[in-house]
Protein backbone atom coordinates (compact mmCIF):
# COMPACT_ATOMS: atom_id res chain seq x y z
CA UNK A 1 0.00 0.00 0.00
CA UNK A 2 1.43 3.36 -1.08
CA UNK A 3 1.26 6.40 1.16
CA UNK A 4 -1.23 8.74 -0.47
CA UNK A 5 -3.09 11.90 0.13
CA UNK A 6 -6.63 10.52 0.65
CA UNK A 7 -8.73 10.76 -2.49
CA UNK A 8 -11.53 13.32 -2.77
CA UNK A 9 -13.93 10.86 -4.41
CA UNK A 10 -14.19 7.16 -5.27
CA UNK A 11 -15.07 5.84 -8.73
CA UNK A 12 -16.23 2.23 -8.95
CA UNK A 13 -15.94 -0.42 -11.53
CA UNK A 14 -19.30 -2.17 -11.21
CA UNK A 15 -19.48 -5.55 -13.01
CA UNK A 16 -17.56 -7.98 -10.83
CA UNK A 17 -16.46 -5.37 -8.29
CA UNK A 18 -19.84 -4.37 -6.87
CA UNK A 19 -22.20 -6.92 -8.41
CA UNK A 20 -21.80 -10.66 -9.04
CA UNK A 21 -22.68 -10.77 -12.74
CA UNK A 22 -21.83 -14.48 -13.11
CA UNK A 23 -24.27 -15.93 -10.58
CA UNK A 24 -27.07 -13.56 -11.63
CA UNK A 25 -26.70 -14.08 -15.39
CA UNK A 26 -26.15 -17.85 -15.12
CA UNK A 27 -29.39 -18.17 -13.15
CA UNK A 28 -31.26 -16.30 -15.87
CA UNK A 29 -29.53 -18.24 -18.65
CA UNK A 30 -30.48 -21.48 -16.90
CA UNK A 31 -34.14 -20.43 -16.76
CA UNK A 32 -34.22 -19.48 -20.43
CA UNK A 33 -32.41 -22.65 -21.55
CA UNK A 34 -34.76 -24.84 -19.49
CA UNK A 35 -37.79 -23.08 -20.92
CA UNK A 36 -36.61 -23.78 -24.49
CA UNK A 37 -35.90 -27.43 -23.69
CA UNK A 38 -32.09 -27.18 -23.51
CA UNK A 39 -31.28 -27.73 -19.81
CA UNK A 40 -28.32 -29.80 -20.99
CA UNK A 41 -26.34 -26.66 -21.85
CA UNK A 42 -24.08 -25.47 -19.01
CA UNK A 43 -25.43 -22.07 -17.98
CA UNK A 44 -22.14 -21.02 -16.37
CA UNK A 45 -20.12 -21.90 -19.48
CA UNK A 46 -22.65 -19.96 -21.60
CA UNK A 47 -22.33 -16.99 -19.24
CA UNK A 48 -18.54 -17.08 -19.16
CA UNK A 49 -18.36 -17.25 -22.94
CA UNK A 50 -20.73 -14.28 -23.28
CA UNK A 51 -18.69 -12.29 -20.76
CA UNK A 52 -15.38 -13.18 -22.41
CA UNK A 53 -16.66 -11.81 -25.71
CA UNK A 54 -17.45 -8.58 -23.87
CA UNK A 55 -13.97 -8.37 -22.32
CA UNK A 56 -12.32 -8.90 -25.69
CA UNK A 57 -14.71 -6.47 -27.34
CA UNK A 58 -13.96 -3.75 -24.81
CA UNK A 59 -10.19 -4.34 -24.95
CA UNK A 60 -10.24 -3.93 -28.72
CA UNK A 61 -12.98 -1.31 -28.99
CA UNK A 62 -10.58 1.55 -29.69
CA UNK A 63 -9.53 -0.18 -32.92
CA UNK A 64 -13.08 -0.49 -34.30
CA UNK A 65 -13.61 3.18 -35.04
CA UNK A 66 -17.07 3.01 -33.42
CA UNK A 67 -18.16 5.69 -31.01
CA UNK A 68 -19.95 5.09 -27.72
CA UNK A 69 -22.81 2.58 -27.97
CA UNK A 70 -25.21 1.68 -25.16
CA UNK A 71 -24.04 -1.59 -23.60
CA UNK A 72 -27.39 -3.27 -24.32
CA UNK A 73 -26.51 -3.12 -28.00
CA UNK A 74 -23.04 -4.61 -27.52
CA UNK A 75 -24.42 -7.31 -25.20
CA UNK A 76 -26.98 -8.17 -27.85
CA UNK A 77 -24.42 -8.35 -30.66
CA UNK A 78 -22.18 -10.59 -28.56
CA UNK A 79 -25.10 -12.80 -27.56
CA UNK A 80 -26.18 -13.18 -31.18
CA UNK A 81 -22.63 -14.16 -32.16
CA UNK A 82 -22.43 -16.66 -29.28
CA UNK A 83 -25.72 -18.26 -30.32
CA UNK A 84 -24.51 -18.59 -33.91
CA UNK A 85 -21.36 -20.30 -32.70
CA UNK A 86 -23.44 -22.62 -30.49
CA UNK A 87 -25.88 -23.27 -33.36
CA UNK A 88 -28.64 -22.40 -30.93
CA UNK A 89 -31.63 -20.35 -32.01
CA UNK A 90 -33.44 -18.29 -29.40
CA UNK A 91 -36.56 -16.18 -29.93
CA UNK A 92 -36.32 -12.41 -29.94
CA UNK A 93 -38.09 -12.21 -26.56
CA UNK A 94 -35.59 -14.60 -24.96
CA UNK A 95 -32.64 -12.65 -26.33
CA UNK A 96 -34.17 -9.45 -24.95
CA UNK A 97 -34.72 -11.09 -21.55
CA UNK A 98 -31.07 -12.14 -21.40
CA UNK A 99 -29.74 -8.71 -22.39
CA UNK A 100 -31.96 -6.99 -19.83
CA UNK A 101 -30.70 -9.38 -17.16
CA UNK A 102 -27.58 -7.21 -16.92
CA UNK A 103 -29.80 -4.43 -15.51
CA UNK A 104 -30.76 -6.58 -12.52
CA UNK A 105 -27.55 -8.07 -11.17
CA UNK A 106 -27.23 -8.93 -7.48
CA UNK A 107 -24.61 -7.20 -5.34
CA UNK A 108 -21.87 -9.10 -3.52
CA UNK A 109 -22.93 -9.58 0.13
CA UNK A 110 -20.68 -6.75 1.41
CA UNK A 111 -21.40 -4.20 -1.34
CA UNK A 112 -24.40 -2.28 -0.02
CA UNK A 113 -23.06 -1.93 3.52
CA UNK A 114 -19.58 -1.09 2.23
CA UNK A 115 -20.85 1.59 -0.15
CA UNK A 116 -23.07 3.16 2.48
CA UNK A 117 -20.12 3.40 4.88
CA UNK A 118 -17.78 4.81 2.22
CA UNK A 119 -20.44 7.32 1.19
CA UNK A 120 -20.31 8.99 4.60
CA UNK A 121 -16.87 10.30 3.74
CA UNK A 122 -16.53 10.19 -0.04
CA UNK A 123 -18.71 10.98 -3.04
CA UNK A 124 -19.25 7.66 -4.81
CA UNK A 125 -19.59 7.49 -8.57
CA UNK A 126 -19.62 4.73 -11.12
CA UNK A 127 -16.80 4.41 -13.63
CA UNK A 128 -18.22 1.58 -15.70
CA UNK A 129 -18.57 0.77 -19.36
CA UNK A 130 -22.26 0.19 -18.66
CA UNK A 131 -24.60 2.88 -19.91
CA UNK A 132 -26.54 5.26 -17.68
CA UNK A 133 -29.97 3.58 -18.00
CA UNK A 134 -28.53 0.16 -17.12
CA UNK A 135 -26.66 1.51 -14.11
CA UNK A 136 -29.70 3.43 -12.86
CA UNK A 137 -31.87 0.31 -13.11
CA UNK A 138 -29.20 -1.80 -11.40
CA UNK A 139 -28.76 0.70 -8.58
CA UNK A 140 -32.51 0.80 -7.93
CA UNK A 141 -32.68 -3.00 -8.04
CA UNK A 142 -29.66 -3.64 -5.83
CA UNK A 143 -29.80 -0.57 -3.54
CA UNK A 144 -26.48 0.96 -4.63
CA UNK A 145 -26.26 4.55 -3.27
CA UNK A 146 -24.32 6.27 -6.07
CA UNK A 147 -23.90 10.04 -5.90
CA UNK A 148 -23.63 10.16 -9.68
CA UNK A 149 -23.58 7.78 -12.63
CA UNK A 150 -20.39 8.56 -14.51
CA UNK A 151 -18.09 6.50 -16.75
CA UNK A 152 -18.21 5.53 -20.40
CA UNK A 153 -21.45 7.22 -21.47
CA UNK A 154 -20.66 10.57 -19.84
CA UNK A 155 -17.01 10.38 -20.95
CA UNK A 156 -17.99 9.09 -24.41
CA UNK A 157 -15.04 6.72 -24.11
CA UNK A 158 -14.73 3.16 -22.87
CA UNK A 159 -12.30 1.92 -20.28
CA UNK A 160 -9.40 1.23 -20.59
CA UNK A 161 -9.00 4.41 -22.71
CA UNK A 162 -7.42 7.13 -20.49
CA UNK A 163 -10.28 9.53 -21.30
CA UNK A 164 -12.79 7.27 -19.54
CA UNK A 165 -10.94 7.80 -16.25
CA UNK A 166 -9.78 11.36 -16.75
CA UNK A 167 -13.17 12.70 -17.83
CA UNK A 168 -14.72 11.08 -14.77
CA UNK A 169 -12.39 13.14 -12.57
CA UNK A 170 -13.09 16.20 -14.73
CA UNK A 171 -16.84 15.78 -14.25
CA UNK A 172 -16.23 15.89 -10.50
CA UNK A 173 -14.03 18.98 -10.96
CA UNK A 174 -11.05 17.25 -9.36
CA UNK A 175 -7.62 16.21 -10.64
CA UNK A 176 -7.13 12.58 -11.76
CA UNK A 177 -4.84 12.04 -8.74
CA UNK A 178 -7.66 13.07 -6.40
CA UNK A 179 -9.90 10.28 -7.69
CA UNK A 180 -9.47 6.62 -6.68
CA UNK A 181 -10.71 3.83 -8.92
CA UNK A 182 -12.06 0.88 -6.95
CA UNK A 183 -12.00 -2.31 -9.03
CA UNK A 184 -11.59 -6.07 -8.81
CA UNK A 185 -9.60 -6.09 -12.05
CA UNK A 186 -5.87 -5.54 -12.39
CA UNK A 187 -6.21 -4.47 -16.03
CA UNK A 188 -8.69 -1.73 -15.11
CA UNK A 189 -6.49 -0.48 -12.26
CA UNK A 190 -3.41 -0.58 -14.48
CA UNK A 191 -5.11 1.72 -16.99
CA UNK A 192 -6.48 3.97 -14.23
CA UNK A 193 -3.00 4.36 -12.71
CA UNK A 194 -1.56 5.17 -16.12
CA UNK A 195 -4.26 7.86 -16.42
CA UNK A 196 -3.15 9.36 -13.10
CA UNK A 197 -5.76 7.96 -10.70
CA UNK A 198 -5.29 6.37 -7.29
CA UNK A 199 -6.15 2.68 -7.18
CA UNK A 200 -7.97 0.31 -4.83
CA UNK A 201 -8.09 -3.42 -5.55
CA UNK A 202 -10.94 -5.54 -4.20
CA UNK A 203 -10.36 -9.29 -4.16
CA UNK A 204 -13.30 -11.06 -5.78
CA UNK A 205 -11.99 -14.64 -6.10
CA UNK A 206 -15.42 -15.94 -7.07
CA UNK A 207 -15.96 -13.55 -9.99
CA UNK A 208 -15.07 -16.33 -12.43
CA UNK A 209 -16.36 -19.08 -10.16
CA UNK A 210 -12.91 -19.64 -8.70
CA UNK A 211 -11.08 -19.77 -12.05
CA UNK A 212 -8.13 -17.37 -12.39
CA UNK A 213 -8.85 -13.85 -13.60
CA UNK A 214 -7.92 -13.15 -17.22
CA UNK A 215 -5.80 -10.07 -16.41
CA UNK A 216 -3.25 -11.35 -13.90
CA UNK A 217 -0.40 -10.02 -16.03
CA UNK A 218 -1.33 -6.50 -14.87
CA UNK A 219 -1.08 -7.34 -11.17
CA UNK A 220 1.10 -5.02 -9.05
CA UNK A 221 0.91 -3.41 -5.62
CA UNK A 222 -2.08 -1.05 -5.54
CA UNK A 223 -2.61 1.97 -3.30
CA UNK A 224 -5.30 0.13 -1.35
CA UNK A 225 -6.17 -3.56 -1.32
CA UNK A 226 -9.10 -5.16 0.50
CA UNK A 227 -11.12 -8.36 0.52
CA UNK A 228 -14.47 -6.56 0.42
CA UNK A 229 -16.00 -3.10 0.26
CA UNK A 230 -16.62 -3.17 4.02
CA UNK A 231 -12.93 -3.89 4.53
CA UNK A 232 -12.07 -1.00 2.18
CA UNK A 233 -14.34 1.25 4.27
CA UNK A 234 -12.43 0.11 7.37
CA UNK A 235 -9.08 0.86 5.71
CA UNK A 236 -10.26 4.27 4.59
CA UNK A 237 -11.48 5.18 8.06
CA UNK A 238 -15.21 5.09 7.30
CA UNK B 1 -54.37 18.50 -15.62
CA UNK B 2 -54.10 16.51 -18.82
CA UNK B 3 -54.76 12.79 -18.92
CA UNK B 4 -51.43 11.12 -19.52
CA UNK B 5 -49.77 7.80 -19.56
CA UNK B 6 -47.71 8.00 -16.37
CA UNK B 7 -44.10 8.95 -17.02
CA UNK B 8 -41.32 6.36 -16.70
CA UNK B 9 -38.97 8.79 -14.94
CA UNK B 10 -38.95 12.29 -13.46
CA UNK B 11 -36.37 14.95 -14.32
CA UNK B 12 -36.07 17.88 -11.92
CA UNK B 13 -35.16 21.46 -12.33
CA UNK B 14 -33.17 22.13 -9.15
CA UNK B 15 -32.57 25.85 -8.43
CA UNK B 16 -35.87 27.21 -7.13
CA UNK B 17 -37.77 23.96 -7.60
CA UNK B 18 -35.93 21.74 -5.11
CA UNK B 19 -33.69 24.21 -3.27
CA UNK B 20 -34.31 27.76 -2.07
CA UNK B 21 -31.34 29.50 -3.65
CA UNK B 22 -32.46 32.99 -2.59
CA UNK B 23 -32.49 32.50 1.19
CA UNK B 24 -29.27 30.46 1.16
CA UNK B 25 -27.28 32.83 -1.04
CA UNK B 26 -28.59 36.00 0.62
CA UNK B 27 -27.47 34.65 4.01
CA UNK B 28 -23.98 34.04 2.64
CA UNK B 29 -23.90 37.40 0.83
CA UNK B 30 -24.93 39.07 4.10
CA UNK B 31 -22.06 37.40 5.96
CA UNK B 32 -19.50 38.39 3.36
CA UNK B 33 -20.75 41.99 3.12
CA UNK B 34 -20.71 42.36 6.91
CA UNK B 35 -17.20 40.97 7.10
CA UNK B 36 -15.97 43.56 4.59
CA UNK B 37 -17.71 46.40 6.43
CA UNK B 38 -20.62 46.85 4.01
CA UNK B 39 -23.66 45.64 5.97
CA UNK B 40 -25.55 48.60 4.42
CA UNK B 41 -25.89 46.75 1.09
CA UNK B 42 -29.15 44.78 0.77
CA UNK B 43 -28.13 41.11 0.55
CA UNK B 44 -31.42 40.09 -1.08
CA UNK B 45 -31.14 42.77 -3.76
CA UNK B 46 -27.54 41.66 -4.40
CA UNK B 47 -28.68 38.04 -4.67
CA UNK B 48 -31.60 38.85 -6.96
CA UNK B 49 -29.39 40.90 -9.25
CA UNK B 50 -26.84 38.08 -9.45
CA UNK B 51 -29.56 35.56 -10.21
CA UNK B 52 -31.17 37.79 -12.83
CA UNK B 53 -27.86 37.99 -14.69
CA UNK B 54 -27.82 34.19 -14.69
CA UNK B 55 -31.37 33.94 -16.06
CA UNK B 56 -30.58 36.38 -18.85
CA UNK B 57 -27.26 34.67 -19.54
CA UNK B 58 -28.92 31.27 -19.86
CA UNK B 59 -31.74 32.58 -22.01
CA UNK B 60 -29.27 34.09 -24.44
CA UNK B 61 -26.52 31.45 -24.18
CA UNK B 62 -27.34 29.86 -27.52
CA UNK B 63 -26.42 33.13 -29.26
CA UNK B 64 -22.96 33.37 -27.70
CA UNK B 65 -21.37 30.52 -29.63
CA UNK B 66 -19.82 29.20 -26.40
CA UNK B 67 -20.00 25.51 -25.59
CA UNK B 68 -20.85 24.04 -22.19
CA UNK B 69 -19.06 25.73 -19.29
CA UNK B 70 -19.21 24.64 -15.66
CA UNK B 71 -21.69 26.86 -13.85
CA UNK B 72 -19.05 27.98 -11.32
CA UNK B 73 -17.34 29.83 -14.16
CA UNK B 74 -20.54 31.54 -15.31
CA UNK B 75 -21.49 32.40 -11.72
CA UNK B 76 -18.06 33.94 -11.26
CA UNK B 77 -18.25 35.99 -14.46
CA UNK B 78 -21.68 37.29 -13.50
CA UNK B 79 -20.54 38.07 -9.96
CA UNK B 80 -17.52 39.98 -11.26
CA UNK B 81 -19.76 42.01 -13.59
CA UNK B 82 -22.20 42.73 -10.77
CA UNK B 83 -19.40 43.94 -8.52
CA UNK B 84 -18.09 46.25 -11.26
CA UNK B 85 -21.57 47.72 -11.67
CA UNK B 86 -21.85 48.17 -7.88
CA UNK B 87 -18.34 49.64 -7.74
CA UNK B 88 -17.62 47.16 -4.98
CA UNK B 89 -14.29 45.37 -4.75
CA UNK B 90 -14.19 41.98 -3.07
CA UNK B 91 -11.11 39.85 -2.47
CA UNK B 92 -10.55 36.70 -4.51
CA UNK B 93 -11.32 34.51 -1.48
CA UNK B 94 -14.67 36.23 -0.91
CA UNK B 95 -15.64 35.85 -4.56
CA UNK B 96 -14.76 32.17 -4.35
CA UNK B 97 -16.80 31.76 -1.17
CA UNK B 98 -19.83 33.30 -2.85
CA UNK B 99 -19.55 31.15 -5.99
CA UNK B 100 -19.16 27.99 -3.93
CA UNK B 101 -22.26 28.93 -1.93
CA UNK B 102 -24.33 27.60 -4.84
CA UNK B 103 -23.01 24.11 -3.97
CA UNK B 104 -24.60 24.28 -0.50
CA UNK B 105 -28.14 25.50 -0.99
CA UNK B 106 -30.89 24.45 1.43
CA UNK B 107 -33.88 22.44 0.18
CA UNK B 108 -37.44 23.69 0.50
CA UNK B 109 -39.04 22.07 3.58
CA UNK B 110 -41.00 19.49 1.53
CA UNK B 111 -38.23 18.56 -0.92
CA UNK B 112 -36.42 15.69 0.80
CA UNK B 113 -39.60 13.91 1.89
CA UNK B 114 -41.24 14.50 -1.49
CA UNK B 115 -38.26 13.17 -3.43
CA UNK B 116 -37.95 10.09 -1.24
CA UNK B 117 -41.63 9.31 -1.79
CA UNK B 118 -41.44 9.87 -5.55
CA UNK B 119 -38.30 7.74 -5.73
CA UNK B 120 -40.22 4.66 -4.60
CA UNK B 121 -42.00 4.65 -7.92
CA UNK B 122 -39.90 6.68 -10.37
CA UNK B 123 -36.21 7.06 -11.18
CA UNK B 124 -35.35 10.65 -10.23
CA UNK B 125 -32.75 12.59 -12.18
CA UNK B 126 -31.66 16.19 -12.31
CA UNK B 127 -32.25 18.26 -15.43
CA UNK B 128 -30.43 21.40 -14.37
CA UNK B 129 -28.00 23.84 -15.94
CA UNK B 130 -25.80 23.25 -12.90
CA UNK B 131 -22.72 21.12 -13.50
CA UNK B 132 -22.22 17.63 -12.13
CA UNK B 133 -19.77 18.53 -9.33
CA UNK B 134 -22.06 21.27 -8.03
CA UNK B 135 -25.11 19.01 -8.06
CA UNK B 136 -23.24 16.16 -6.34
CA UNK B 137 -22.07 18.50 -3.58
CA UNK B 138 -25.55 19.96 -3.21
CA UNK B 139 -27.18 16.53 -3.05
CA UNK B 140 -24.76 15.40 -0.33
CA UNK B 141 -25.30 18.64 1.60
CA UNK B 142 -29.09 18.67 1.34
CA UNK B 143 -29.84 14.93 1.26
CA UNK B 144 -31.32 14.81 -2.24
CA UNK B 145 -31.67 11.16 -3.36
CA UNK B 146 -31.01 11.46 -7.10
CA UNK B 147 -30.70 8.26 -9.13
CA UNK B 148 -28.49 10.08 -11.62
CA UNK B 149 -27.13 13.58 -12.24
CA UNK B 150 -28.19 14.48 -15.76
CA UNK B 151 -28.91 17.77 -17.51
CA UNK B 152 -26.72 20.38 -19.14
CA UNK B 153 -23.27 18.86 -18.58
CA UNK B 154 -24.24 15.37 -19.76
CA UNK B 155 -26.32 16.80 -22.64
CA UNK B 156 -23.63 19.40 -23.43
CA UNK B 157 -26.51 21.83 -23.95
CA UNK B 158 -28.21 24.31 -21.64
CA UNK B 159 -31.91 24.53 -21.02
CA UNK B 160 -34.04 25.84 -22.67
CA UNK B 161 -32.39 24.28 -25.78
CA UNK B 162 -34.43 21.21 -26.80
CA UNK B 163 -31.32 19.00 -26.66
CA UNK B 164 -30.97 19.55 -22.92
CA UNK B 165 -34.34 17.84 -22.38
CA UNK B 166 -34.20 15.28 -25.18
CA UNK B 167 -30.71 14.03 -24.35
CA UNK B 168 -31.78 13.59 -20.74
CA UNK B 169 -34.52 11.21 -21.91
CA UNK B 170 -32.05 9.55 -24.29
CA UNK B 171 -29.59 8.92 -21.43
CA UNK B 172 -32.40 7.10 -19.63
CA UNK B 173 -33.19 5.15 -22.81
CA UNK B 174 -36.77 6.41 -22.89
CA UNK B 175 -38.74 8.60 -25.29
CA UNK B 176 -39.10 12.31 -24.48
CA UNK B 177 -42.83 11.74 -23.86
CA UNK B 178 -41.98 9.15 -21.18
CA UNK B 179 -40.05 11.73 -19.15
CA UNK B 180 -41.71 14.38 -17.01
CA UNK B 181 -39.91 17.63 -16.17
CA UNK B 182 -40.71 18.88 -12.68
CA UNK B 183 -40.08 22.61 -12.38
CA UNK B 184 -41.23 25.77 -10.64
CA UNK B 185 -40.69 27.77 -13.82
CA UNK B 186 -43.17 28.22 -16.65
CA UNK B 187 -40.42 29.04 -19.15
CA UNK B 188 -38.59 25.79 -18.39
CA UNK B 189 -41.80 23.77 -18.69
CA UNK B 190 -42.75 25.55 -21.92
CA UNK B 191 -39.44 24.51 -23.48
CA UNK B 192 -39.71 20.97 -22.09
CA UNK B 193 -43.19 20.57 -23.55
CA UNK B 194 -41.99 21.85 -26.91
CA UNK B 195 -39.23 19.19 -26.72
CA UNK B 196 -41.89 16.51 -26.17
CA UNK B 197 -41.71 15.99 -22.39
CA UNK B 198 -44.53 15.73 -19.89
CA UNK B 199 -44.67 18.63 -17.44
CA UNK B 200 -45.24 19.11 -13.71
CA UNK B 201 -45.40 22.59 -12.22
CA UNK B 202 -44.52 23.16 -8.56
CA UNK B 203 -45.71 26.44 -7.04
CA UNK B 204 -42.82 28.15 -5.27
CA UNK B 205 -44.31 31.58 -4.53
CA UNK B 206 -41.36 32.51 -2.29
CA UNK B 207 -38.66 31.82 -4.87
CA UNK B 208 -38.34 35.56 -5.50
CA UNK B 209 -39.32 36.52 -1.97
CA UNK B 210 -42.95 36.95 -3.00
CA UNK B 211 -42.22 39.05 -6.09
CA UNK B 212 -43.77 37.81 -9.35
CA UNK B 213 -41.79 35.26 -11.38
CA UNK B 214 -40.06 36.65 -14.47
CA UNK B 215 -41.56 34.05 -16.84
CA UNK B 216 -45.32 34.42 -16.32
CA UNK B 217 -45.85 34.89 -20.06
CA UNK B 218 -45.21 31.16 -20.53
CA UNK B 219 -47.90 30.10 -18.04
CA UNK B 220 -50.41 27.51 -19.32
CA UNK B 221 -52.12 24.41 -17.95
CA UNK B 222 -49.46 21.76 -17.17
CA UNK B 223 -49.89 18.00 -17.00
CA UNK B 224 -49.45 18.06 -13.24
CA UNK B 225 -49.55 21.00 -10.81
CA UNK B 226 -48.81 20.89 -7.11
CA UNK B 227 -47.93 23.16 -4.22
CA UNK B 228 -45.00 21.05 -3.07
CA UNK B 229 -43.07 17.90 -3.92
CA UNK B 230 -44.98 15.96 -1.25
CA UNK B 231 -48.22 17.06 -2.93
CA UNK B 232 -46.83 15.94 -6.29
CA UNK B 233 -46.00 12.55 -4.73
CA UNK B 234 -49.62 12.36 -3.52
CA UNK B 235 -50.92 13.22 -7.00
CA UNK B 236 -48.68 10.63 -8.61
CA UNK B 237 -49.80 7.91 -6.23
CA UNK B 238 -46.53 7.64 -4.28
UniProtKB/TrEMBL annotation, chains A, B:
Keyword Hydrolase appears in the UniProt entry: yes
GO molecular function terms attached to this record: (S)-2-haloacid dehalogenase activity
Catalysis performed (reactions): an (S)-2-haloacid + H2O = a (2R)-2-hydroxycarboxylate + a halide anion + H(+)
SUPFAM superfamilies in UniProt: HAD-like
Pfam families reported in the protein's UniProt record: Hydrolase
Highest rank taxon of the organism: Bacteria
Keywords: Hydrolase
Family according to the record: Belongs to the HAD-like hydrolase superfamily. S-2-haloalkanoic acid dehalogenase family.
Cited NCBIfam families: HAD-SF-IA-v2 (TIGR01493), HAD_type_II (TIGR01428)
Task of the protein: Catalyzes the hydrolytic dehalogenation of small (S)-2-haloalkanoic acids to yield the corresponding (R)-2-hydroxyalkanoic acids.
Protein name: (S)-2-haloacid dehalogenase
Organism the protein comes from: Sphingorhabdus pulchriflava
